[in-house]
Amino acid sequence: MKALITGASSGMGREMAKYLFSKGYSLILVARREENLVKLKKSLIGKPEVKIITTDLSVPENAKKLYEETANENIDFLINNAGFGIYGEFANIDLDREIDLINTNITAVHILTKLFLRDFIKKDKGHILNVASSAGFLAGPLMSSYYASKNYVVRLSEGIYEELRRKKSNVHISCFCPGPVKTEFNKVAGVNFAIKGIDQTYAAKYAIDNALKNKMIIMPSFTMKSANFFMRFLPNKQLTKICYHIQRKKDN
C-alpha cells in the first residue's frame, strides 16, 4: 500500500502521514517546505518506505511534473491536501496571491485527481481523498476566493463519485469537509477562527478512516453536520449574510 499526500509538511497533511504510516502505508510526502518534510520523514521510524518531494503546487506545471515523477510508484491512495486561504474584501486582495490560491486549491487538485484517477481506473482500484472544507457549501464574503475554490473541490468530487458509482468501479473518491481545524491555516490566511477548531490528529484519522470506508462527503464534527443540514432550509442570500457576520468575527 502506498499513499501520496500533498501539503504534508504541517497540519492535517502531517497527521495523515503519521496515521497512514502507522497503518503500514509507504508514503510519498509532497510540500513546499523541504525542512519540514525532512523532519517528518526522520520522525517516521519503521519499515514502510517514506519519500519526500519538494515542489510548489501554485505552479500548475509542477502538478503535472509531480504526476510524471510518481506515475510508476504504484500509488493506490492519493490525498489532495495542499491548500490555503486569504482573508479580506475581494477588491482589495492581491491578485497574484489570489491566483496562487486558485492554482493550489483548484488547478493542482484537478490535475492530480484526473491523472491518478485514469491510472486507478485502469487497474480498477484506488482511493482519492480531496480535502475541501465546510466552506465548500457556501459563498464566503471576506474569503470569497477560498470558499469558491472549496465549492469547486466538493462539486468536482461529487461528480466523479457518481460517474464511478454508475460503473460499479472499485475506485473510490471522497471529499473531506471539516469546519475549523487547529492547524496553521488561520496564520496563513490572517484570521482567527470564530468557531473553536477541532484537533488535527482526530480530523486526519477521521478523514482517512471514512475515505477507506468509501464515504463520499466526510464531516468530522456534529456541529458542522448539523449546520450543513439546517443550511438546506435557508435561502442562499440569507446564508451569505450570516456567513459575512461570521467572517467579520475573524478580525478579532
TrEMBL record:
The keyword Oxidoreductase applies. The keyword GTP-binding does not apply. Its EC number is 1.-.-.-. GO terms for molecular function: oxidoreductase activity. SUPFAM superfamilies: NAD(P)-binding Rossmann-fold domains. Keywords: Oxidoreductase. Belongs to the short-chain dehydrogenases/reductases (SDR) family. This is SDR family oxidoreductase.
